[in-house]
């Protein structure tokens, strides 16, 4: 009986089904290992997302940029010298202070660290006498970079002003009879009782060389360091004997670095 059992066990172990089952299990195991290895390799090849630099790091990078452009406005008071004009019969007005305002567009090119060559163009109007002017500035602008979000600075340079004034004088009352000569635009009229009406106007166009210096503060925005509001104060002196050769101004605007 034992030989019969041994023969049956041997035939079971050596049957084709038993022989094909073992390689199938091995193939399934190797396929599983291959899929896991492929998934790990794919995960390893994914690049991590690049984090955005901190605002302080971005500001440090922008400090190395070469060009800065600013757009702003300037209000000023002028004095020095005296202007006199007539505004009515027997009435003379003398003034020694006046004001004005202008729009500004400027460009700075960095030389080294916080030192810039600074150029600026401005145009506006002034009063007493009323007139318009344009000016250009060229000089040096130095920014102190000891703090991150507040940047003090100072500047000095040459300023050239082209200015025109519109002047007029009026005296007496007009009765409708007049003579006009327009070399200097003078109108004369007869007034009942022997009086006289007089109106005189002229336009002056002059060039005024000047020197300008000032102090400023710039405030880089933490969420956008490329943009910076700024405020400045300045003093300008023109080397001539016209009224208003001394100016004191306040500026404000926005600066862009690129």
Automatic annotation (TrEMBL):
Residues 20-57 are annotated as: Disordered. Residues 20-42 have a biased composition (Low complexity). The keyword Signal applies. Residues 1-20 form the signal peptide. Keywords: Signal. It comes from the Bacteria. This is Outer membrane protein beta-barrel domain-containing protein. It comes from Plesiocystis pacifica SIR-1.
